[in-house]
## 1
Amino acid sequence: DAMVIQNPRYQVTQFGKPVTLSCSQTLNHNVMYWYQQKSSQAPKLLFHYYDKDFNNEADTPDNFQSRRPNTSFCFLDIRSPGLGDAAMYLCATRETDRGVRQPQHFGDGTRLSIL
Amino acid sequence: GEDVEQSLFLSVREGDSSVINCTYTDSSSTYLYWYKQEPGAGLQLLTYIFSNMDMKQDQRLTVLLNKKDKHLSLRIADTQTGDSAIYFCAESPDNYGQNFVFGPGTRLSVLP
């Protein structure tokens, strides 16, 4: 019954080797978010899509890119991962078009390790 | 800018009540949320409250909002070992903004 699904749960990549994390949703929500969460810290917003409109946070490194080919899927691409990019990556969705603001719904995350 | 603060740690004995506190700075916040995160998992929405309410109860959870002091609390009655987790307070700063502001999280430890 998972509504926000992140694959894989664990990803290992080599320093500098591009990696893609994926997120899909069955909720048909119009907004999708990517967060980075390091140990014992709050999630840090990287970017979000409002429908097809991409919104980047000012301090998100250029190394991080995102794609949203359709409502259901969103991808996080890390072009040249560094050791500092090892973290949990969380995807979330939210519906904002019904006139009532809904909470964000999170997936279980992908834990990324860099060798 | 907006800021959300929480105490970082709380320990309680099993069966006692837990109270996790949160303060926020943005007076335009209209929605405030509590999320629970267990080790290695994503954030699970526990409950949320509109700023025109001062209390919301949902089974063992009670949320109190003091809008004047910008203070939010989450009370967990009859705390169980399964409640051990990190609890994040979050605010939604304005009516149409898409972003949440999260607090640093409170790690709740439940002792047998």
## 2
Amino acid sequence: KAGVTQTPRYLIKTRGQQVTLSCSPISGHRSVSWYQQTPGQGLQFLFEYFSETQRNKGNFPGRFSGRQFSNSRSEMNVSTLELGDSALYLCASSVRTGGGDGYTFGSGTRLTVV
Amino acid sequence: GESVGLHLPTLSVQEGDNSIINCAYSNSASDYFIWYKQESGKGPQFIIDIRSNMDKRQGQRVTVLLNKTVKHLSLQIAATQPGDSAVYFCAETRWEKLTFGTGTRLTIIP
């Protein structure tokens, strides 16, 4: 069965711009979580959506937002990009919410802000 | 504050030897732990998990040990192969989400 699909794989944006990343979870998975991965901070939790509702949120500024659609696909938006937003953004899906049955990750979107 | 950490950031192992990667956690309320493997250019890949009511769980060439007394988790990889080269993360379920450690880079020496 198809895994978690993230698009695009690579993205280069300029400071001040905004960006939207997309994630299609595994069929049947209703939970989608987003993580930011950087060399200095590791994997940091952004938020989780389950059945179109945000269930949990990490410690990121309001410039980071997301949403989930009725087909469980999710998008993540970052507005007013800063150089420090350069990172690998990972999406993970699971059947249940809360991380209690593990996540399946996509390959990520590599965002570079210049 | 609470954290999930790893004892060593890097580990080099001879091909064919066994590898042991360690992880310390601080939240005694965590009830589910996972080891992930991340290869270059890819997302983390599930290796093995264990729940807090268990001490040990085995998979194919991998074993996870959980010591709740000292809040310690370890991943053992038997007969390490070149394909095992990657960064390994432990993760725990805490506050309704998975929280990841900083990772250990495993390098296989031929």
